[in-house]
Amino acid sequence: MTVISNHLPTAELQALDAAHHMHPFTTNNELAERGARVITSGKGVYLRDSEGNEILDAMAGLWCVNLGYGREELVKVAARQMQELPFYNTFFNTTHTPAIALAAELAKLAPEGLNHVFFAGSGSESNDTNLRMVRVYWAEKGQPEKSHIISRKNAYHGSSVGSGSLGGMAYMHAQGGLPIPGIHHIGQPDWWAEGGDQTPEEFGLARAQELEAKILELGADKVAAFIAEPIQGAGGVIIPPSTYWPEIQRICDKYNVLIIADEVICGFGRTGNWFGSTTMGIKPHIMTIAKGLSSGYMPIGGSIVCDEIAEVINAIEFNHGYTYSGHPVCAAVALENLRIMQDENVLDHVNNVAGPALNAALTQLGDHPLVGGVNVKGMMASLPLTPNKATRAKFAMDAGTVGFMCRERCFANNLVMRHVGDRMIISPPLTITADEVEIFHKRAKTALDETYKALKDGDMLTAAS
Ligand SMILES: *Cc1c(COP(=O)(O)O)cnc(C)c1O
């Protein structure tokens, strides 16, 4: 047996990794040459790697470690639950306390009228559930043709065949025959990149009205649902203009189209409320949850479903579910995560301490010559990089080249910021302190300075024509 310890030399671990481990969303051969960074432990907002570096994780893992690393309470609850009942399914007329308690707690925290939870193991699985559930709902209501789903370009809803089809990532659709039929994608409300000379408000309204045009094109009696993230995450933290969501809501109400709010990132405090739908003023019929639900300590997701849909689905056998739906250990950890969030008033911390500190730091970074704007809502943010602040120009080089350079400079300065194209992405643990935000600010500034200097020295600050 191969015994892996953190005490093996980094190069040996990297060689084993390169030989046997296929990484997601990665060109593995390129990674093999560079060598993957080996993360060994975490505490609070900091990660430690096999070389002993202390890295400030301004991405909270993958938008999920909302309470930070090393929370003993979550570890204890997991251990206790594993001893008591490590697994039992919820298929065959059985249930267990962790799933019961978590479903009830979620119903309590969710907006009014959303009182039913279908569990899954991830966000992708939850959106697969939603895809089938809305179609079954309309079929049971005598409208089986009302089955088409409208989403947006550059949306992210997961990586399974169903959820990857719901998402609007062109580079994912290019592989493996996605999207499946019956899913349509309209434009995204990305004013910074696509708004041209329109005001954000004009642009937001125009993009929302693409939904109405698509519904009329397909026929309202054919459209089951509209799915969207309240604020796009993986697409680049795209905060829609203020006009966007009210118009979407009006259109969905008018044509009887269900709204699925994908809260996988926005949920559980990231935008300053329990759910992004509250922040953005959306009345969803289903909310997708995962990531922050357990602070990433256990893989768990789910769909929080409104009374009206639950009434229809509960009247039939819905032939759907996962071995790990409501997994007792995952559910127990998620429940403890929600308890801590409430007992420690994490939402207050976001709204009164961490959020304002992050906002102030990003506003200052917005003055940097490379930064073309500041998009921030609560604890999720993006800084689009540009060779020309006035025109919001793209770089002449391939999209993502500069973002990648900046991410590497962040790593070199012991900071994790992700890049999406040429946008830097920020989504730290919600528990980050004001002092830690200041450390983030210093390291991010250094990384931006170094990136700017490299671009200047290499004569690469030219805009795409
Ligand atoms: C991450 C994410 C998903 C997919 O969740 P997985 O747990 O990776 O399957 C779905 N929707 C959104 C908005 C996400 O950010």
Automatic annotation (TrEMBL):
Its cofactor is pyridoxal 5'-phosphate. The keyword Transferase applies. Pfam families: Aminotran_3 (PF00202). The keyword Transferase applies. Coiled coil: none annotated. GO terms for molecular function: pyridoxal phosphate binding; transaminase activity. InterPro entries: Aminotrans_3, Aminotrans_3_PPA_site, PyrdxlP-dep_Trfase, PyrdxlP-dep_Trfase_major, PyrdxlP-dep_Trfase_small. Keywords: Aminotransferase, Pyridoxal phosphate, Transferase. It is an enzyme of class 2 (transferase). Signal peptide: none annotated. Its EC number is 2.6.1.-. Belongs to the class-III pyridoxal-phosphate-dependent aminotransferase family. This is Putrescine aminotransferase. It comes from Sulfitobacter undariae.
